[in-house]
DNA sequence: CATACTTACGGTACTGAGTCCCACCAGGGG
DNA sequence: CCCCTGGTGGGACTCAGTACCGTAAGTATG
C-alpha cells in the first residue's frame, strides 16, 4: 500500500488545520509542514490557499460548458437544468469534502465571497447560453434570459444547501422538482399546467402605473387586454 | 481654495494609474507616491487596494437594509423593488466613477469577483427579507423567495449594465419597467391576485397575471385597488 | 500663554501569500 | 554512460495588509 498522493496529503492537512485553528489562523507554512512537503509544492498543486477548498472548479465549469454546447436537442431551460443537475451530482460525489467546505464558507467571509464568485461564473455561462438560445429578437429578451439563469442557479443552490445541512434525503429528486418549478415559472401559463388551454396565449400580464381611479382606467385597461397581446 | 482631500487625491491617483498600467501592475506604493501621501494613510482610508474602486458599499448596504425594515407598508416584492431603485440611483449618482469601475471589473478577474460577491450580499439581504415577509408556511416558499431575490437583483444588474454601457438613456424608467415584469412573473396565474403600491406619491402600481377576461377580473381588481392597502 | 487631549498623518518593521529561479534527484531511453 | 524530463525542495523576492510608535496640527481648558 503506497502512501497517499501529495495532493491528498495537502488537502487532509489543510482541512484538519482549518478545523482546528480556523482558516485565517492557518498559514500555508503550517499546512506544508503537517503534510511533510515543501512550500513550493503546495502552490504547484493549488494555485492559492483558497484553492485547497475549491478543487477543480475549472474542470467542472468546462464540463458544464461542454454539456450545454452538445445538448442542442433540448430546449433552453431543459438543457440548463441538465447541466445544473451535473453540478449538483458533482457536489454529491464530493460528499464529506463538500460538507466541510460548507462549514468553512459559512464562517469565513473571504471563502464565502469566493464561493459566490464561482457560482457567478456558472450563472454567466447559463445566461450566455440562454441568451444565445432565445436570440434577442424582442427587447427584454436578454433581461428574461438573465433572470432565467439566476433562477436556475438559485434553485440549485437552494437544494444544495438543504442537502449540505442534512435537511434533504433525496437531493436529486428535489432538484428535479425545483427545476420543473422554474421551468413552469417561465413557461407561458396554460400550457404546462393545463389550467386553461387556450390557443395561443391565454395569459394576460398587465402592469401599469397610474394615479387615477380604477373606473377612469377601465377604457385603457380594456384596450390593453384586447388590443395588445404581446407576441 | 484648499487642496482636494486626501481621499480624493487617492482615488484620483489610483484610477489614473489603473487606467495607465492596469490594476495588477499598479502597487499601493505607486498610488501613494502619486497622491503624495504615506502608505499608512492609504490603508487608513481604504481598507484594501480593491476598496478604492468600491467605496462605501457597506453604507449603501446599510441604507438598503434600513429601507427594507422601514417599508412594511408595501408588499414584499414592491418593497424590494424600492430598495433596488435605491441602489441603482446610488450608481447613477456616482456617474463617471461607476463607469470607470465597470471598465475595470470587465478586465480584471479579481475585481469582477469582488463585484459579484458584493452583489451577493444584496441578494442575501433581499432573500432574507422576502423569506421573512412570506413566511415559509408552504414547502418551497423559501425556494421561491430565493428565486425572487435573484430575479430582482438580476433585473437591477441588467439595467445597470445597460446604463454603464451607454445603451440606456433613462435607467430609472427601465428599472421600473423591469421590476414590474419581475413582479408580474411571480404573481400567481389564474387568480387575479396582484400587488399594489399606492403609498409612494399618489401613483398606483398594479401588476397581476391572469388568463381570464377583464370583466371576470373586475371585482377582484376593485378589491385590490380599494380594500387591500387598508388592511 | 501653557498644558493636556485629540485627530490625522508618516515611518518602520513585521507577517503571510504568491512568484521566480535554480538546484536536486528520480526514472527512462539513447 | 549521458541526456532528458517531471516532480520536488529551497531561497530570495514582491507586495498587500497590520501593528506600533512618533509627531505635527488643531482644540479645549486652566
From TrEMBL, chains A, B:
It comes from the Bacteria. Residues 4-64 form the HTH tetR-type domain. SUPFAM superfamilies: Homeodomain-like. Keywords: DNA-binding, Transcription, Transcription regulation. InterPro entries: Homeodomain-like_sf (IPR009057), HTH-type_TetR-like_transc_reg (IPR050109), HTH_TetR (IPR001647), MftR_C (IPR041347). The keyword Transcription regulation applies. The keyword Transcription applies. Residues 27-46 bind DNA. This is TetR/AcrR family transcriptional regulator. It comes from Streptacidiphilus cavernicola. The lineage of its organism: Bacteria, Bacillati, Actinomycetota, Actinomycetes, Kitasatosporales.
